[in-house]
């Protein structure tokens, strides 16, 4: 996975070098986006109902727990219009935070985690599990105008890839009985499914933007679910995401060049 990161770093530097040859065409942009995780549980966590005390192997879903999560990201990038401004190339830095929770299903008061250990099978009664992870990545993307080339309003299609590294991680298991909290590190460590240090995915979006006569741009995009190259990316939930929303804003370094 680090090869993707090195490749994107090389391509980004090459893109910046290209931009240096046409300084009046450069825009500096900011972005903010978010999307929900699918909430599908990772397969290495097993929850049951103690009064029943059985597990149905035909049911691959955890019917006694529900997951939820959200991804937020923000970034700064440099944009270069090419091919008579029909295509825009961009690269920069992006910070992504992923937060996730595992909670009891609607008809359950607690989570009952069946956890293998050296002692056999331990049963832990939990109130919730949560995790927060942060990544810094280098995106490399391109968009092409589909509609409105001669208009200030434009519909565009974007595709990109990003690669980066994990910069912080914090997992937490809240036990119902406070005295059991000492087992938290043991349970987290023995899963053997800690999030990957490297983070990479493909992504695409469909957007609408307004380009002013002075070159300033503002846009909104519908982001398609990510296609991850790195796995596992987090501990409790799968890497599946739902469509998201992204907002962008960019200003030219030399507004006079667009007059």
Structure in a nutshell:
The protein has 259 residues and is mainly beta.
**Main structural class:** mainly beta
Tally of structural domains: 1
Main CATH class: Mainly Beta
Question: What percentage of amino acids are in beta strands?
Answer: over 45%
What this model shows, in words?
There is one protein chain. It is built from two helices and ten strands; from the N terminus they run αββββββαββββ. The protein has helices at 2-20, 184-190, and strands spanning 27-37, 65-82, 87-104, 111-117, 120-147, 153-175, 198-211, 217-223, 227-228, 241-252. The longest helix has 19 residues, at 2-20. It starts with a helix and ends in a 7-residue tail after the last strand. Mean pLDDT is 81; it is low at 18-24 and 53-61.
Layout of helices and strands:
Blueprint: H1 2-20, E1 27-37, E2 65-82, E3 87-104, E4 111-117, E5 120-147, E6 153-175, H2 184-190, E7 198-211, E8 217-223, E9 227-228, E10 241-252
Antiparallel strand pairs: 1-2, 1-10, 2-3, 3-5, 4-5, 5-6, 6-7, 7-8, 7-9, 8-10
List descriptors:
259 residues, mainly beta, Porin, 8-stranded antiparallel beta barrel, 2 helices
């Amino acid at each position: 996975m680090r090869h993707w990161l090195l490749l994107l770093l090389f391509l980004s530097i090459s893109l910046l070098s290209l931009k240096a040859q046409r300084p009046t065409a450069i825009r500096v942009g900011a972005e903010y986006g978010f999307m929900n995780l699918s909430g599908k549980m990772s397969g290495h966590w097993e929850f049951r109902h103690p009064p029943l005390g059985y597990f149905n192997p035909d049911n691959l879903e955890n019917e006694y727990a529900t997951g939820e999560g959200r991804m937020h990201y923000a970034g700064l990038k440099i944009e270069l219009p090419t091919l008579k401004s029909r295509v825009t190339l961009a690269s920069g830095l992006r910070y992504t935070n992923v937060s996730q929770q595992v909670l009891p299903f609607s008809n359950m008061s607690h989570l009952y985690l069946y956890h293998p250990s050296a002692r056999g099978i331990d049963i832990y009664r939990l109130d919730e599990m949560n995790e927060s992870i942060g990544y810094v990545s280098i995106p490399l993307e391109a968009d092409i105008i589909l509609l409105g080339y001669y208009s200030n309003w434009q519909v565009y299609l974007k595709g990109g890839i990003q690669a980066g590294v994990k910069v912080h991680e914090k997992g937490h298991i809240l036990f119902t009985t406070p005295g059991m909290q000492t087992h938290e590190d043991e349970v987290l460590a023995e899963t053997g499914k800690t999030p990957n240090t490297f983070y990479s995915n493909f992504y695409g979006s469909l957007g609408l933007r307004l380009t002013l006569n002075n070159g300033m741009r503002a846009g909104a995009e519908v982001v398609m679910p990510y296609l991850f190259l790195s796995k596992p990316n987090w501990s409790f939930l799968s890497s599946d995401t739902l469509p998201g929303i992204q907002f962008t804003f960019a200003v030219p370094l030399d507004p006079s060049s667009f007059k």
